[in-house]
Amino acid sequence: MADPTLPRARSLDALQTAFADWAQTDARTWIYLFKALAAAFLALGIAMRLQLPQPRTAMTTVFIVMQPQSGAILAKSFYRIGGTLVGLIATLFLIAAFAPQRELFLGALALWTGICTAGAARNRNFRSYGFLLAGYTAALIGIPAAQHPEGAFLAALTRAAEVTLGVLCAGFVGALVLPQQASLQMRTTVRARFSAFVEYVAAALAGRVERAQIERTNARFLAEIVGFEAMRSIAVFEGAETRGRSGRLARLNSEFMTASTRFHALHQLMNRLRGAGATRAVDALEPYFKELAPLLHTPGEPVLTAADAAGSARKLDAFKAALPRRVREARIVLAEQPGFPLLDFDTAAELLYRFVDDMHAYALTYASLAAATHERERWPERYEPKTNAVLTAIAGLRGAIVIAVLSAFWVASAWPNGTVLVLNAAAVCALASSSPRPTRMTYQMAAGALLATLVGFVEIFGVYPRIDGFPLLCAALAPPLALGIWMTTRPKLAGYGAGYCIFFCVLAGPDNMVSYDPAGFANDAIALVLSMAACAIAYSVLLPPSTPWLRRHLLADLRRQVVLSCQAPLARLRGRFESRARDLAFQAYALMERDPAARRDALAWLIAVLEVGHAVMDLRRELGQLPSDARYAATMPWRRAIARSAKTLAALFAHPAAARLDAALAANVDAIAATQQALAAFAPPREDRHRLQRILSYLHFVRTALFDPQSPLAQYALASRRDDAAPA
Hints:
This protein is an all-alpha fold. Helix content is 80%, strand content 0%. Helix 3 runs antiparallel to helix 19, helix 4 runs antiparallel to helix 5 and helix 13 packs antiparallel against helix 14. It is elongated. It starts with a helix and ends with a helix.
């Protein structure tokens, strides 16, 4: 007979599962919605109680600063207050210098706004809010104050007080009321990424990964690296525990980049060897791969904790310690086989050792997170997301042009509401410039502002006259604001929600003395919509981010990172090279959202740049560690051949062409031959001989990368062959 309590238990389990899913999804949305409303009403109430001139500014600030995670709120608040103070100082200077001449003042303001917009575009993290506020505050305070210079100082202070009040209220509510911490999300991300990476490596070593999956994995890793650094930069604001691990988290991200690049280079080399028919070299290396995969990942037992990572690190350390001796012993046997491709074997074995070493360091850093303090915390390198300099200059120039054009229109038309037109354009230009897709952002914000105009009209002229007292005011504002907050929690509607929330407060936010002026409201709404339209048109017409020329420039900047690896000082070069190359590829990938073929091309160039750049840096490191002996001097023929190879390689990636590819291949072959001749000529000691063999391995790997049919350089090889085949 069936147990009657069994269906009830199953129903209870299903209910608990459903509740847990709801708590992780929709419940967080509701919590954030109520927190945003509470912070906005708290700022509004305090501003009204203090009799500040425009309480709506404090409420608007809340919606600019508010984020789901408390660390994000504190990070934005920190930079926003700093930007406000800088903008305040700039405002007072501009008023003192140019207020008597409105045209000069507006010209200087346009220049300042352009500089701040460029700064916001350059820093794609919460620092961008500091630049945003420095420009927006100058417009917000300066334009009204310039019309009455005698009260400029007091107006500037009160407006700064309103902004600061909004920042403090958002930070207070976000940090103390049901806080959602980014540090908890980081722990989940660290664990999931380590586990996913070791599973991917184990599958690839076993030959269970298709090329399409490799492309998807590389695209995911690219986004995760950038997102992880953004998350780390806000988590440090949440408490001493995360700050005490910040260096290790930065190191973890850097070591993940290095390990993933090294593994991809190894995987690509093995595929090239298989494609070239070097089966004997592949067969000689397969046993090492079969041993390595279980050390990283045991099927059915994912890596979940730092303790698991410590176990993997111990296994990798033992494998790494025994690997050089095993490879040397195998090489002695293989060298006796006639025609065995020893250079292929040496190159793959060296890459395998480097990957094991990098993976061991990655596992050690992950394991160290279990301790509150650790020696691995000392890590000088940082991932710095910086927008390409040309894109930054274009964003600043575009912002300055928009402000200058709208200011000229204001002066020529003598429109009383021109202040709203100009200052809102300054805010939108800065907000959009820090977005990965600024054109879409401006159009979405414009649509949100149009909706805010309609809802605000109903609120001011239909609701406000029928209520009395602050509680009823909050009740009347809650539904329309809740709609905007909800939209900001949906990725596809975030731009609409931001425009709606911010500009609803600008248009319909209450002041201590509410003015029922339909004509004034209409003029403000028209100015608001015109400023949004002007920004949208500017981003669509003035060198929009989707312009093919800009995309080509980003890829050219990405390729120039190989030039950096060939010429820059080696100190801290690897981390700078990795982060810069991946950040440029991420920017290009974001711009090519609607062009899958262009996205694949960007990823292909990233892979080529990382492979060749790493090999060049490894080669330069080995050359730098050669003993101080005349046989190893930079003037020796084999050293000059290597230098020529690096020079032709830099020229190829700086300006790819068929002739430059041929020159790079020829110089590489000469360098390999010259180094082999030197190695055979003066019979160096054991350690020096191993170093020269490693130099040969890196040169040979560069050669295989240049010959790779899957590389974007393959098109130039085809062009060269077509030129050779053309009749004279």
